Amino acid sequence: MATSKAILTPLKDIKVSSYQIPAFGRVPNTSIQRKPLMIYHSSFKQSASASTIEDYLSSVGVVSPQWRYKMFSQSHFHSTSHEVLCVAQGKAKLCFGGDENPKTIEPIVEKGDVMVVPAGVAHRLLEDIGGGFSMVGSYPRGKSWDMCYGNEGEEDQIKCIGSLGWFQKDPVYGEEGPSLQV
């Protein structure tokens, strides 16, 4: 893992943004577990490719990388797992909190940024700025993810969010990472 740490910005040098997003309509956002949406700005260095990010996350051992893609343009959330999204290429404007929610968060993220998205937080792509936006999507080891849209009939799925555990180690920084301070 020592070699792979060369792609990671030291923890003391990153900025972390943290957001509590209230429930809106049938979307729970952070209201159930009270764990914030977190953005680690420039966590991975510009030299990091999708493959090296996947290898690094696997070596930390908290999450398992499962896909490479941009982000769905339809607002959705997960009830069975938290999600870690690492921007591997490009820049985009995202939406967290659900459509029409007055408390929505619309950050611009770029290569190297990491988002720790708690279960229940709605998210979608608003704009791929410049084209080529791509992320590595990861989930806690042993967890599978589902798709929820804030529709009627998802109430039982939403109840499951309360029983999900939080990270015992930070998915990017291990023993001392930002997700452990919440």
Automatic annotation (TrEMBL):
Pfam families: Cupin_1. Residues 75-123 form the Cupin type-1 domain. InterPro entries: Cupin_1, RmlC-like_jellyroll, RmlC_Cupin_sf, UCP019307_cupin, YjiB-like. CDD domains: cupin_YjlB-like (cd02219). It comes from Cladonia borealis. This is Cupin type-1 domain-containing protein. SUPFAM superfamilies: RmlC-like cupins.
